[in-house]
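Example with several molecule types.
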Amino acid sequence: MSASLRVLIVDDARLARRELRTLLAAIPWVECVGEADDVPAAREAILREQPDLVLLDVQMPSGEGFDVLDGLETVPMVVFVTAYDQYAVRAFETNALDYLVKPVEAGRLQAALERGRERLPAPAAPAATDSVRDALGADDQVFLRDGERCWFVALGEIRKVVVDGNYARLWFRDQNAVLARSLSTLEARLSPALFFRANRSTLVNLRRVRAIEPSLGDGYDLTLDDGSQVEVSRRQARELRERLAL
Amino acid sequence: MSEKRTARDTGFWWRNSAVWLAYLGVSLLLGFTYGGHWSGIVLISVMVSLCLWVGSAFIRGWALRHDWLQRDLLGLTWRLLLAVVIVAAATQLLTATALLPALAWDWVQLPGQRANYRPAAVFGYWFNTAIVLGVWCALWTGRRALQRARHSEMAQLRAEAQRATLEHQALRARLNPHFVFNALNNLRALINEDPARARDMVTHLSSTLRHALVHTDGGWVTLAEEWRVVQDYLAVEAIHYEDRLRVHTDIDPAALSARLPPMALQLLVENAIKHGIAVHPGGGELHLRAYFEGDGLRVEVDNPAAHDGGSGGHGIGLAYLRAQLGIDAVPSSSGRGTFLLERQGARVLARLEVQQ
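Resulting C-alpha cells for the full complex:
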C-alpha cells in the first residue's frame, strides 16, 4: 500500500468543510487529519497535525488564506479553494499546488491531491533521521511573501541566503525575497548537509555550487549555478574542505 | 484644452505656410515661363501669395470663432463665398497699391513699365485669386468635416464601450458570484445533511437570482417586494454563516408601500454581511430598519465595523446603488435620494433616503 496523504481542511463555512470531507472520504489513500475555521485555528492545526497538504479557503474572517502560511517555518503543500476565481491567478503566481473552485468537482479534487501525493518525499529510513531530526531538508518548503507577491519555495531551490538588515534575503529561481528571520536562526534550522556558511553574511546551498577556486588569502571563490560568486572566508575554508573532503 | 488648441494652431500655421509657399513657387514658374523674367512678376506673385497666406488664416480664425462649421450647408457656403470675395478683392487692392508706386518709381520692371488695369483685366485677376482661395476654403472645410466625423465616431465608440462596462458591472453587482457559488457549494453539502432544508434553499436561491435578473430595466419596486427577496437572500446567507449571522429587523408596515430602486436593500445587506459579518470570527448582529421620515423612505442597515477601519463604500455594489439613485459619492440632495455610510463607534451605519 502506498503512503496515504494527510489532508487538513480550512474553511470558515461548516457546510463547505463538510462537503470537502464527503469528497475526501471517497478517496481511499487520503486521510483527513482535521478541520479549521479560521486563520489562528488553521495555524495551530498545521503545527499540531503536520499535514502533507492543506485545502485552504482564500477568505476567512481573520484574514486571507495566505495569512495562515505567513510566518510558518515550513509550509505543507497547499491547494487553494475559492468560491470565485479572482484570487486564483495570484495563487498560481505563488505556485501553489493547484486551486479549486466551489462547488468542488470530485475529479478535479482527486487530480489535485494526486499531484500532491506525487510530490510526497519518499519515507525516510528512521535511523538516519534521528541525528538531524529537526533540521529541514531539501523537500521542505517555505512560504515567502514580498508585498503582493508570494512564493512556495522548496529549500533545495534556494541558491543562497544573504543577510539583509536583521533579516535574510533568499535567492531562488530567478527571484529573491526577504524572510523575516535572522541568518543564524535559519542556519540552525537548515540541514548542514545542504547549506554551508560561506562567510559572515552568506549561506550557500552546496548542491548549487558549480565551481570552487582558491582565492587570495587562503579562501575560496564559489561560483553558483546562476553565475554569481560567493567568497568563502579563510575561517570557513577549512570547514569547507572537511565538508567536501577535499 | 488651450494647449491642445495651441498645438493645433501651430500645425495649421506650418501647413498653411507650406501651401502658400508652393503656390508662390508655381505662380513664379508660370509667370517666368509665359511673361518673361521681370521683377514686377516677382512682386505681384509675392504680394498675392502673402495676402492669401494672411487672408486664409484670417478666414479660418473668423470661421472658427463664429462657429461657421456648426451651420447648415447653405449658411456655411454663403459665408465662405462672401469671405472669398472680400479677401480676393483685398488681395488685388493691396497688390495694386504696392505695384503701382513701385512701377512709377522704377523699383521693379514690367514690359512697357506699366500694369494692365483695364476693368476686364482687373476682373480676371480678382477671379483667379478668388478661385484659388475658394479651392483653399473647400479643402479646409472638407478636412475639418472629416476630422469631426472621425472624432464623433470615436466618441460614440468610447461611449458604447463605457456603457457596456457599466452594464457588466451592474450585473456583477446584482449577481454577486461569490454569493452564488458559495450558496451552490453549501447546497451540495446540505443535500446530504438535510434534504428538506436543501429543497427550501433552492427556492430561496431561485427567488434571489430571479430578482437580480428580472429587474434590469431600472424600474423601481416596492419595499414589500424588495423585503421579500431580501428575506430569501438572508435565508441563503444564514445557511452559509449559520449562527454567525444574527439579523434584527424593524420594518414599519406603513413603509412597505414605499418605492425604491430594485436591489437597493439587498445591496445594503450584502455590503453589511461582507464587511461586517464575514470578517469577524464570531460573526455579528445586523440591524435593519425601514420607516417613513417626512415624505421620504428611510432605510438603515448597521453592522459591526471591520477591523481595518475602512468604511468601504467603494465596491461595485454601492457604486451601482449610487448610480441608480443618481447621486454622487458625497452626500447631497441633488438626486432622488441620498446614501450615507458612516462609522458609529464599533459599528458602521448605512442610511438610504429615497424621496417618494
